[in-house]
Amino acid sequence: MLGLVFLLLSCVVAVQTKPKQETFVPFLTTQRKDIISSGSSSSATTSSSSANNVSGWFTRNILQPLTGGPRIPEHTITDYFFFQVATLNDGSGSYIGLFSQWFVLSELREVSEKDGPNLGGSSGDRAGSGNVYEGQAEAHKQNAIQSKGKRDYHGAARAYVEAAKSYEKSGSDFNMMEAAGAYEEAFKAYNMVQQTGPGIQCLENAARLFRKNERGGSRAAKIYTQLGDLVKTQDTKKAVEMYRESAELYKSEGDGRALHATIKLAELLCVLQQFQQAYNCYNDTIIPETMSQEILQYTARDHIVNAILAHLGATNSDWIILASDLTRFEELCPDFRGSAGCKALQALADAEWERDPQAFQGACQAMNRLKTGGMPDWQVGLLLAEKNKLEGGDLL
Question: Which topology term describes how it sits in the membrane (predicted)?
Answer without folding.
Answer: Peripheral membrane protein
